[in-house]
Fold this protein.
Amino acid sequence: MSSVVTNTTKGNPKGVFKERLSQFSERLKQDRVSYAFIAPFGILFFAFTVFPVALSIILSFTYFNMLQWPTWVGWENYIRLFLADDIFLVAVKNTLFFAAITGPFSYVMCFIFAWFINELQPKIRAFMTLLFYAPSISGNAFLIWNIIFSGDTYGYVNGFLVYWGIVDRPIQFLVDPTYMMTIVIIVVLWMSLGTSFLVFIAGLQGISSSLYEAGALDGIRNRWQELWFLTIPAMRGYMMFGAIISITTSFAAAGQLTALTGPTPTDYATWTVMQHLQDYGYIRYEMGYAAAIAVLLFLTMVSMQKLVQRMLNKIGS
Amino acid sequence: MISLQLRKKRLSRSTGGDLVIFAFLAAGAAFMALPLVYAISNAFKPLNELFIFPPQFFVRHPTLDNFNDMLVLMANSWVPMSRYFFNSTFIVITGMLGNVAAGSMAAYALSKHKFLGQDLMNEVIVLSLMFAPAVVEIPNYLTISYLGWINTYAAVIVPSWAWTLGLYLMKKFIDAMVPDTLIEASRIDGASEFRIYAQIVMPIVKPAWLTLIILVFQQLWGITGGMFIYAEELKTLPYALDQMVQGGIARAGVAAAVTLMMMSVPIIVFVINQSKIVETMGTSGMGGE
């Protein structure tokens, strides 16, 4: 049937188009079960993610104060970010430093601790999982670090430093730029055994034991070889997932930093790109400018993700 | 002394390696636990112990005053506390069910079906994880107000059903745990696609959606309604508790009690959930036991 149609419509562009369209709708009809499965998620995903992201990318080329209709300004937002916004450049430097440490560290911690814990007996395993995961689900409990590193002698660290005579007056851990970044990194790492950690634990437990039995027969001698040749290749899908989580959380960190070092940190010592974005979006209502920052952040994360994907493809193969 | 008993089944285990693991775990556990213990201990400290020099790690004269103060504040709230509690519970449960259902159905199709636009959708989903949510909120406000959902539960529940993380997680697990041959065999046996999804795929990836439930719970539990809900009687428990601790130093004790209460709920949910995961691993034979 279809070959007849092709012969009669050859050389007729309108006919070719019609044929393509009918093939296309045939394909859609054939895949209708799949689309039914996708639909509930897909429709909401389009409405609440794809559409607003696309709109934001367009907005990044405009001046938009949320009261007046946006006006087109071309590349001006992007040019301003790099040539006229010194604080943005400070934020970029801080974010790169912060992400370069917390990203890889939290990722490796998640995997190593998940792997260690997986070796334990079920009961101890459940307890250790809870212990390591608790900080990341404890909501505002991380504010306890504000008390631990508080700048007066009621702060736990300062109280002891003063009591033992190591310092004669409290160190301003959260106000002095010498310490701020270090403290923030410690706290973020404390909270970082979250989503990826849990997914790694579930993933490790899903690896069938026959894989290891076969490996032992094939001459896997110790746990490190087992890790490299069996576990990591079996975990590759989850490891990519964890990498994306690490990238997004480390590059988009803002909330915890604001809570620890305040909305306006001394000398912008812990000011990140995400905080800069929120500053312009929520406080100054310059949505076009904020959108431009979001687009740059997005491009950075995507290129990091591609890089990590390439590295992961090499590991263990 | 915690004895570290490793699984006996596998032979490739050295004592040296066990010691390295033990040292790592012990150091990690101490780093994780100490601040939490401090937070718990603080909730039982009377006000004069909260502000003592030198600061005490453990409470010396434990008291329930902070919790009593919290209950008094709760009882005096303008909107009854039970209403905040209902709001939070309702949002968490409906959000969670919707997210797991919509995410896992789409994940099954993306993982095991072949259809037009599949690669594009996979790519878009990964990319969407990396776009700053702060910027997306403004267009979303417009969408939600266009739909007339401002000041309703729907404003926070419905968008949560399409949080990408859930779909992405489910897809990874279905990719790794469900063999294609099993699906093929079920199709030959005449099972409908929905039946394959509900009765074959979902039971196998039970650890995945139990994990997802924890993650979604945690996100939904923190929701305050933000700019979408402004009616006081529709606000959530975290919002109400947060209001109570805005009193500064005088409320320091209450704040410590509230922190403990807020952190204990997700932890309890996690513990219940985790025991289910362990159970599944034991019975399905899928685990590394």
User: Anything to note?
Assistant: Chain A has 16 helices and two strands. Residues 1-9 of chain A have pLDDT under 50 and may be disordered. The CA atoms of residues 285 and 295 of chain A lie 17 Å apart.
